[in-house]
């Protein structure tokens, strides 16, 4: 009788251990799956950065980077949600996990490389000087003694500070976005604005005979997409999607829609 009871107890123990092992294995597989297969990606943007990402007359978020991100999401099999952020805190938003990507005319710099991971460059840009169309300013040296505007904590500040002319300007006013900077330029509160070439060229087509660009640019640069350090899996998946979009012509079509030509780096 004791032998039968002992055998029964041993059998029950085996069954319990097997069930626990199966449950643990299932839980582990579920955790691994959820950490690598995200169904939604949150993209942080400056929604006043035309033509890369901005709001149209219907208040919808549109732009080159917006179309590119949506197409990349389709290639990756994920939903893309756009989250307007304060551009001054973009890296903090990314590192905190509130957004998954910084993707809106985000210039690759050595300083930023220390904080975030970057995709390969996908678009050429430059920091240029915009003035009123009737301004007598013609070259960088004409910035001496002038009131200069630029977007706060943007690569425009780096470009200006790296040029000797920054020591000769009268004053530098930082704005929350380029729209405000150009508005003050239009009304004469500042004499010139340091701004991304792609943005300046867009506004020049929207408001002809209002602005002009100096022939000399301050600094060439390239746009990339910022990913949180430690999330190499997302970076690889995103880069694979971008590469595929270059191969199948999707990126070229989006570029032609917004710029009239294929400007995407291959």
UniProtKB/TrEMBL annotation:
Chief place of localization: other
Give the protein family.
Answer: Belongs to the bacterial solute-binding protein 3 family.
Does the keyword field hold Magnesium?
Answer: no
Residues forming the Solute-binding protein family 3/N-terminal domain are 40-262
Cellular compartments annotated: Cell envelope
* Keyword annotations: Lipoprotein, Palmitate, Signal
Q: Which GO terms describe its cellular component?
A: cell envelope; membrane
PANTHER family registered for this protein in UniProt: ABC TRANSPORTER EXTRACELLULAR-BINDING PROTEIN YCKB-RELATED, MEMBRANE-BOUND LYTIC MUREIN TRANSGLYCOSYLASE F
Residues annotated as domain Ionotropic glutamate receptor C-terminal = 40-261
The cross-references to InterPro entries, in alphabetical order and at most eight, read: Iontro_rcpt_C (IPR001320), SBP_3_CS (IPR018313), Solute-binding_3/MltF_N (IPR001638)
Give the organism, scientific name. Answer: Lysinibacillus macroides
Q: Which Pfam families match?
A: SBP_bac_3
Q: Which SMART domains match?
A: PBPb, PBPe
Q: Which CDD domains match?
A: PBP2_AatB_like
Q: Where is the signal peptide?
A: 1-18
Q: Which GO terms describe its molecular function?
A: ligand-gated monoatomic ion channel activity
- Name of this chain's protein: Amino acid ABC transporter substrate-binding protein
């Amino acid at each position: 009788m004791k032998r039968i009871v002992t055998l029964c107890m041993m059998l029950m123990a085996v069954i319990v251990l097997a069930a626990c092992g199966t449950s643990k294995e299932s839980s582990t597989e579920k955790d691994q799956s959820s950490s690598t297969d995200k169904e939604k990606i949150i993209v942080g943007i400056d929604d006043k950065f035309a033509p890369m990402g901005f709001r149209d007359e219907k208040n919808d978020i549109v732009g080159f980077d917006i179309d590119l991100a949506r197409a990349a999401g389709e290639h990756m099999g994920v939903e893309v949600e756009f989250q307007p952020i304060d551009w001054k805190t973009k890296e903090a938003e990314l590192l905190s996990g509130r957004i998954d990507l910084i993707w809106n005319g985000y210039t690759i710099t050595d300083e930023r490389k220390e904080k975030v991971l970057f995709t390969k460059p996908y678009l050429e840009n430059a920091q240029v000087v915009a003035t009123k169309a009737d301004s007598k300013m013609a070259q960088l040296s004409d910035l001496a003694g002038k009131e200069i505007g630029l977007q706060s904590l943007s690569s425009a500040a780096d470009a200006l500070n790296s040029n000797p002319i920054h020591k000769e300007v009268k004053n530098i006013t930082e704005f929350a976005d380029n729209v405000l900077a150009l508005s003050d330029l239009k009304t004469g509160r500042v004499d010139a604005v340091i701004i991304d070439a792609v943005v300046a060229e867009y506004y020049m087509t929207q408001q002809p005979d209002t602005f002009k660009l100096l022939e000399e640019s301050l600094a060439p640069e390239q746009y990339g997409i910022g990913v949180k350090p430690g999330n190499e899996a997302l970076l690889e998946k995103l880069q694979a999607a971008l590469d595929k979009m270059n191969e199948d012509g999707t990126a070229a079509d989006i570029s032609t829609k917004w710029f009239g030509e294929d400007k995407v780096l291959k």
